[in-house]
């Protein structure tokens, strides 16, 4: 398996979108494609047990599992994928990070729209693996450390002799270390479910250290470094794409500051 994806450049056409859930895809994005394809072709009866239609789905699904599956053409190439919300449109000029499917077409892991610097990413792929580990460590530390220190103060206040203090200290510390590790790995697994894909996506897009890329942080930097009124702002803020209303349910769509050049060794298909 290659350590890089490919990139397709061109205009979107024949875009079709269906609401679905990450649960449909189980352990892999390609697992749910047959059922999704049936639904897109109108065979809703065959897909009903696996794919929820929009009204029923919106009532019962939770925020994190809510995604949209799409198919489209970039030039003459068929592209399909899963993003939290699909609000790019026919006619948009895009750069799509893809992997060839076994049968035909390509599966999209990221879609970049240069005109407004917007980037759609595969579910949970906002951070590279190292950035995700750091975020999990920071969040767990913030959660556990204050409670642990409060317990130590409580032990100091209640214990009357050194032996009791040492015993209570070691028991409490051991419990909190185990609790820290459990929460850390659970958090890392939950919010870093797409970090391996993120490493490969960012490597394909030309980031020099893809494992440390944090698009949540870059999203903030876009608007913190320069005001939108700045003539040197990253994009033209008067374009229809930039002013486009963002639908509810957006989770893994971000803005990027400047796109690094795509490396020469990446396969780029310009349609």
TrEMBL record:
Keywords tagged on the record: Membrane, Transmembrane, Transmembrane helix
Superkingdom in the source lineage: Bacteria
Bilayer-spanning residue ranges: 142-159, 165-187
Keyword flag Membrane: yes
NCBIfam families according to UniProt: T6SS_Burk_ExIF (NF041560)
Protein name per UniProt: Uncharacterized protein
